[in-house]
Amino acid sequence: MLKMFNKKLILRDWPAVQAWLQPQLQVWQVQTVSLDIFDTLLARIDTPEQVQRSVCRKLAKYLGSTFKVETIWDARQASEQALRQQAVVHGFDYECRFSELVPAWVERLLGVSDPELVNFIIRTELDLEGLALYVKPEVIPFLQWLKRTNMRVLALSDMYLDGHYLHELLNKFELNNYFDAVYVSADALQCKYSGRLYAWVAREQGLEKSTWVHIGDNPSSDYQAACAQGLQGVWFYEKAELKRIDQQTLAVGMATRASIWSGRYFFSVLQNRLQALTTESDDFYFRYGRDVLGAAFSTFMLGIQERLQRKPVKKVFFVARDGYLFQQMYQHLAEPKPEDAYLYLSRRVITAASTADGLTLEQAQVAFYNPKQQGLRSVCKVYGLPEDCLQPLANRHGFKDFAEPIQDWQDPRLLAFLADEEVQACIRPIGAQHRALLEKYLEQEGFFQHQHLALVDIGWNGTVQKFLKQAFGHRADFPIVNGYYFAFVPKMYTDFGKQNYCEGIIHDSRRDNACERIPAEFEEIFEQGARALEATTIAYQATTNGIEPVLKSPQASDRLAEVACNRMVAAIQAGVMLHWQHFQAVQRLTDYKSSDLLPYVYGLLERAVVYPSREETQYLTRLVHTEDFGHDHVLELGCKALNWQDFLYPQHLWQRIQQSAWRYALLDSIPTSAPNFAFRMAYLHSVRK
Amino acid sequence: MRSSQLAKNLIVSPQRLFIYAQAFRFSSGRGQCFSPGFSALLTWQALRLKQQLLNRGTLRWWRVWLGKG
């Protein structure tokens, strides 16, 4: 007989349960241990009500919007209540069976039975339950220990799911083998809270109640009702878990409000999932990818998914190099979806091809956007033109130094140079050669095979899309192109031609929303986070295998700097992919759209870009950024932090701020965020547009 | 063991977001899209305070300890 029978037993974690059970087991005072399942062995990242509401949303979609979600939800509540009351009338506990509930619900909704729909609902709910549940971390070692003791181990649950459905769930979490039997209230309509389930199990198993211990999280049904039946109840009291559930409930309540609340709820569920199912990493870059860029990139991919459903295309092309990560993420999306391909394109190869009909002033000006531009030399580098041929012609028009930066974009010398037929005659054949190779490459990749396709890239000006249309738009088979960009800031061009659509999903400057401009405040980090590890494409060559891209030399100074950063970029991307995996699961549970998440994502990015932690500035400024416009320049993301002397020379200070890729990192040495706030305000004033 | 610090940068507190959004209010006055809203923020604070004061976990513990069920 147990010495401690019917004593107040409150245990706070599994090691404590094990420590308490061990001495009892050694002397066979305890011969049977039963465990509650939900919130004891399995925890939830989302509440049961939210899972059931998600089923209702999916059912509404399945029924083709014939019914409102709220109507479906009400029908479920009414059916459940009717079945539970019916059970009470027949002398059972206030319980129902899922296998009876779903057909009754469908019949209440449609007026007829529909076995196919019943099956769809059951599968959906089990699937979503599987997503919302996880095994608590210390449970498995405890169950393994219990199994080794040769005790009789039972699982007891007050739950509407029938036994065979519960078995399915336990199988999914590989828990079934730890139990000699599983009992659920739905099967016999007898519950733990009334004590009748304990009595039924005792009869079925022929148990001696005095040697039986039951452990569960509910003080009424798992502890007091068990003790009242003569077995030892143990209340499993996890304070932190109860606090987490309370916070989760609060987040659910607030999510009904607009603004950031739905996004905050979504990412708190995601955080719960990450905390439950993954382990912490020491790698800063991995954590940054998982916690910051992962949220932004995943919301972007969700936006693409929604647009592809709204405006279907035949094929999705991901543009090198920053489309690389997005293609990896796209490949994790569930079917059906349009086929995808990776296009080796760069602004360099596209612009080179665009000079087949000569070089216009608008095209030449593109080279001057680079802050380190070297006038006509930059034009040659951007468009892949021969300097030796053009230099003597430039001299003729007054350019003594071919590398002299051109600040006046309407410089009369430049206008005369471009109007010179000899200059154009030198440019055109080279452009034509580039264009012919690019055209063959695009044909080979199937770009002209489909009437409607999508281009996905990080942004910013849509140069590739613009020049593709410019170079090949005359072809009868040129497709309708939908360009989807992480951020779209068309500073360089405004006219993209007919049937050539562009949209920035996270940021589109045409929406004129100052708040969403945050990616443009530190665009290099988004480009670095998404880029492929290989070098940029600088040309194409014809080989026996067809047209192949020629990548930048590994010896180029900027490429060497890039290779040195590849490990960090790979870690960021591993973090993003982990986030994406869990993001998709949470999205299936919540059915949120990208527009529900965007306000919170802007806030998250505002925190990361404008108010970075010291650790963030320290690690992120180690990355270097390169551009694919023909130069070998490397842009250091890190600058020496500002000190008080800088403030004595405002002009110099302003210059430093303007030249900095990440201006908010300059305030790193100041141990408060107040200057960042003041600086942010000043900056928003200065760029008011 | 759950690591409550894991992915902590994924969650930004509403108070912080409210303060960050004031930079927009005091400058361009547009695009306060990530401000939680003053009344929503107050509601959230009040509910959180209520949760902390009426800690369900602690109340449950006392009910069991006192044998009230």
Notable traits:
heterodimer, A: 689 residues, alpha/beta, Rossmann fold, six-stranded parallel beta sheet, five-stranded parallel beta sheet, 28 helices, elongated, B: 69 residues, mainly alpha, 55% helix
Architecture overview:
- The complex is a heterodimer of chains A (689) and B (69).
- Chain A contains 28 helices and 17 strands.
- Chain A is of the alpha/beta class and 689 residues long.
- Among the domains of chain A are: 139 residues, 3-Layer(aba) Sandwich (Rossmann fold); 84 residues; 51 residues, no CATH class.
- A 6-stranded parallel β-sheet of chain A has the order 1-8-7-2-5-6. Chain A has a 5-stranded parallel β-sheet with strand order 10-9-11-12-13, sandwiched between helices. Chain A has a two-stranded antiparallel ribbon with strand order 3-4.
- Chain A starts with 9 loop residues before the first strand and ends with a helix.
- Helix content of chain B is 55%, strand content 0%.
- The mean pLDDT of chain B is 82.
- Chains A and B meet through helix 10, helix 11, helix 12, helix 13 and helix 25 of A and helix 1, helix 2 and helix 3 of B.
